[in-house]
Amino acid sequence: MKPRRTRLAWLARYADSPNTLANARREAERVVLWALTERGKPLSSLTHEDLLIYRRFLADPQPAERWVMAPGRKAGRRDPAWRAFAGPLSEASIRQSMTLLNSLLSWLVGAGYLAGNPLALAKRRRKAPQPRVTRFLEADLWTAVRESILALPQETPPQRAVYARARWLFSLFFLGGLRISEVVGNGMGDFFMRSDAQSGEQRWWLQALGKGDKERLVPATAELMVELMAYRRSLELSDLPAPGEPSPLLFPVAWRRSKHHAPHWPEPMTRSAVHGIVKEVFDHAANRWLTDGRGEAQADRLRAATSHWLRHTAGTSLANAGVNLSHVRDTLGHSDLSTTSIYVHGEDDARHAAISSAHRMSWSSVSGGSTS
Questions:
Q1: Looking at per-residue confidence, does 230 or 364 come out higher?
Q2: Cis check: omega of the bond before 157, within 30 degrees of 0
Q3: What pLDDT, in 10s, does the model give residues 68-99?
């Protein structure tokens, strides 16, 4: 294909947009004229260095008598007084010109007219890096939080209820990676069991309705199920919830089961109430941290922490343990569930195995408190 026909074919892409077509045609004419007049070579022979010179030329087209229209003149292309520029281009106009030129050169490469795009070597604006997650608990602070929960008093029934609820809540946040809205918006009846697609092993899951009313499957690890059973025993309930049981994930401390009637389930706790529980635990951990003579900066981090820090702590722990990031993404609900996920049990089971083996609460390894 001849060069002029090739450029016309590129311009045809903008036929539906008259303004863009006019701009693209003008830029193509300018660079071709400049290449022939100032560099003595066709467009196909321009180098990266040539185009750097051309960019500077756009800011001050010289010699002016050759390139710049006389003030107040509007001459047609066939008029001897016609010039390619009305004057120097602004920085914004230069960027637009180079963008269109890059589009032309890339298209010519695709059409086989050019072997490569010399502008491809130009320094490209880097995307701003994703902000690093800073709102999470480092290992020593996370240990301090678990120690503070284990150190809660358990002499009286109300104290034991406070302890059991805090331990279960923090297990949910960390092992399940749940948001606070998901803790108050889902119930114990959302736990269910199904067989591993390969081994036939029975695995527990939590069907969580999350942000944007999107559902996801959260692996209910053996450790999380042990914590669930312990919490339910503290409430004098059966170890495991019945399918579809309308009980909330978290109970008020004052709730008591009637000995002679079916449970009258409490209303789910509010977000603000759960937030208050979390802040009390973090404040307790910060006070213990200072009492032990440790740094104020870390204590301040504990006091600043929220439930969402626990979610970030869970994600950080999983990533540091080498769990496949797609498993982390699906567990934390960072993407929609596929409509075919109900059939892809093998992938789900691999995720369950990976989460279970690498992601542990390890209450028993924390010193200084009860492991009941």
A1: 230
A2: no
A3: 988 876 777 788 888 888 889 999 889 988 88
Residue 231 has pLDDT above 60, yes or no: yes
Which ranges of the chain would DSSP assign to H, the alpha helix? 3-11, 18-34, 48-59, 64-67, 91-110, 139-150, 157-176, 180-185, 222-234, 271-291, 296-304, 307-320, 325-332, 345-358
Residue range 96-115: mean pLDDT, rounded: 82
CA-nearest of 66, 85, 82 to 74 is: 82
Is a pLDDT exceeding 60 seen at residue 263?
A: yes
- Cα gap 359→176, rounded to integer Å: 10
**Tokens linked to 221:** 């690890």
Structural domains of the chain in order of their starting residue, each with its CATH number: 3-121 (no CATH), 139-365 (1.10.443.10)
Half-sphere CA count of 262, side-chain side, radius 13 A: 4
Dihedral of alpha carbons 317, 319, 322, 328, sign = positive
AA letter at 343: Y
What is the rounded distance in angstroms from the CA atom of residue 188 to the CA atom of residue 250? 9
Write out the DSSP string of 54-104.
HHHHHHS-SSHHHHBPPTT----TTSTT--SBSSPPPHHHHHHHHHHHHHH
Q: How far apart are CA 170 and CA 177, in angstroms?
A: 10
Matching residue, tokens 């660079």: 31
Nearest residue to 315 via CA among 137, 128, 129: 137
Cβ–Cβ under 8 Å, residues 189 and 179 = no
Nearest to 249 by CA among 203, 218, 222: 218
